């Protein structure tokens, strides 16, 4: 099973169990908590998170805001509507990282990766050739996604 998705499921169950223990669950159900957990890390809803984090989504699909963080606007990055256009730029800079954002992609440097709560020197980046769009759903991508979902919630913009 996917550890990023498992982490979101655990968060949802913890929230529901806490609400029940405190007597404030009301009509709250696990599905509500799953949606909230998914939105907190940049997805529109639970099924959106499930499709992306299980590697079922494809380049060009809405991949959410999962790989973006609030407060990173001060860091220089280049935005692209098409992955193919971004690849040409990525190929000229071995220190850059190509990340998805909804249906677009953008290129960043190591400080942005650190702002996501990730290590820019993690060997999984090399396995992906620093391209999270092309590597969607691969073991290296899933490993980075598992690390990303465990980053502090303040590093997520949420939806």
Written description of the protein model:
The chain is mainly α and 159 residues long. Helices cover 43% and strands 8% of the residues. The protein has seven helices and three strands; from the N terminus they run αααβαββααα. It has helices at residues 3-21, 30-40, 46-53, 83-90, 110-115, 123-127, 139-149, and strands at residues 78-80, 97-101, 104-108. A three-stranded antiparallel sheet has the order 1-3-2. α1 packs parallel to α7 (139-149). It is elongated. It starts with a helix and ends in a 10-residue tail after the last helix. 33% of the residues are buried.
Please render the helix and strand layout as text.
Blueprint: H1 3-21, H2 30-40, H3 46-53, E1 78-80, H4 83-90, E2 97-101, E3 104-108, H5 110-115, H6 123-127, H7 139-149
Antiparallel strand pairs: 1-3, 2-3
Helix pairs in contact: 1-2, 1-7, 2-3
User: What's the oligomerization state?
Assistant: single chain
Q: What is the string of helix and strand elements? A: HHHEHEEHHH
Number of helices: 7
**Neighbour order of strands in the largest sheet:** 1-3-2
Mean pLDDT rating: 94
Given the C-alpha coordinates, what overall shape results?
elongated
Main sheet characteristics: 3 strands, antiparallel
Sequence stretches where pLDDT stays below 50 over 5 or more residues: none
Strand content: 5-15%
State the share of residues found in helices, binned by percent: 40-55%
> Number of DSSP strands?
3
Structural class: mainly alpha
Straight-line distance between termini: 25 Å
Gyration radius from CA atoms, angstroms: 16 Å
């Amino acid at each position: 099973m996917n550890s990023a998705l498992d982490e979101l499921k655990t968060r949802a169950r913890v929230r529901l169990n806490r609400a029940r223990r405190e007597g404030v669950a009301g009509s709250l159900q696990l599905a509500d908590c799953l949606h909230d957990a998914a939105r907190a890390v940049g997805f529109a809803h639970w099924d959106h998170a499930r499709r992306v984090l299980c590697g079922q989504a494809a380049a060009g699909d809405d991949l959410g805001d999962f790989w973006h963080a609030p407060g990173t606007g001060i860091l220089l990055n280049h935005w692209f509507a098409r992955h193919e256009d971004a690849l040409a730029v990525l190929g000229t800079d071995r220190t850059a990282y190509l990340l998805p954002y909804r249906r677009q992609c953008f290129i960043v440097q190591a400080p942005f990766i650190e702002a996501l709560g990730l290590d820019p020197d993690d060997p999984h980046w090399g396995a992906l050739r620093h391209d999270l769009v092309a590597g969607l759903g691969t073991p290296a991508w899933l490993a980075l996604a598992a690390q990303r979902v465990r980053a502090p919630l303040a590093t997520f913009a949420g939806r």
